[in-house]
Model the fold of this input.
Amino acid sequence: MARALADKGWQVDVFDQATSPAAGASGVPIGVLSCHVSVDDNPMSKLTREGLLKVRTFAEQHLVKGQDWLDCGVLERRLDGHTKKKIWQPIERDSVWHGWVQTPTDLQLAQAGLSEINAHEQLWQAPGAWIKPAPLIKALLNHPSVHFHGGQCLQAKEMQALGYPAVVLALGAHTSDFLAELSDAPELPLVPVAGQISWGLHDAEQAKLFPPFAVNGYGGFVSHVPTPQGLAWYSGATFHRGQANTVVTALDHASNFEKLEQLLPQAAQALRSKWQTADSLGGWAGVRCTSVNRVPIARALDAVKLPDWYVLTALGSRGLTLAMQCAEQLAEQINNAHC
Ligand SMILES: Cc1cc2nc3c(=O)[nH]c(=O)nc-3n(C[C@H](O)[C@H](O)[C@H](O)COP(=O)(O)OP(=O)(O)OC[C@H]3O[C@@H](n4cnc5c(N)ncnc54)[C@H](O)[C@@H]3O)c2cc1C
Done:
């Protein structure tokens, strides 16, 4: 949001209760960028296509490919819960999905250890990618008109007193708590969704058993990711709707493993012993913020009661894909209202 406003000529102060950027849900060590594919091409699908293009273009220009992000493509398994499979028809040239989605090749399925399954029940998203939020957010904030102030846990009334010409609340799962302090603030239909990912290091030999691209559809899996400690794999995440705790638990690790067994049986088999050794298994837990209809909220808060206050939240489990596009749209709205 800060970058979108700065690019339009605003001076932006970012106040964060955390001491450094990429806290909250954006502290997730890695995220998958992919489209929400729907047969009726619903508004969320369109938004994810726009969002994916936007973040990829920024990443191409400002991040190190292979280190901070990778345009490796995403294999989406059409697993719904445990049993339901969705058949996807080949994409016609005049479809909006042409160039975005296709049936995976035999080679891609073999690389995922999935040669036995029906290719038409899966999707290959060629523009998909993985990205590390920390370098992305650092690069976004690296603008002469953006001023980051860490360790600033603001209250709504304090914020009002500061007298900024425009205020954007981008507080993720904390948005409702922040607004609760203001008697005239509208109630937003927000729901916290806690989640945990499991991760660990792998060697080059093990890497041969993992696909060289990201996989999602029932939890997700990314491997071959360079970290200071070596190559890493990431698996998950769990979903606890209505919960806001950030404690890493053995139960959630087990749940991530069960999902991986269905998503990528070969990778799960290769990692089974790691999952049983607490020392070699890492975990990270955070809280997503979603709206009741799962659509992001990027708009004026209440033009009459709180003029010049805006909100960008409810980015859900695709926030890394959506954030820049939603911010761009809101920055446009703010600019139009003020210039
Ligand atoms: C386990 C997990 C896995 C995920 N995987 C993916 C993925 O694969 N792909 C994808 O696209 N997305 C993924 N997401 C979602 C994505 O991480 C989020 O949608 C996105 O990071 C939300 O960003 P945000 O800025 O809205 O909220 P946050 O990143 O939560 O930021 C909110 C900020 O507000 C600050 N704050 C709160 N209250 C105050 C206050 N009173 N004063 C000052 N500062 C305050 C916090 O410190 C924080 O920095 C995942 C999320 C989780 C939890």
Observations:
- The mean pLDDT is 93.
- The chain has ten helices and 18 strands.
- The CA atoms of residues 164 and 308 lie 9 Å apart.
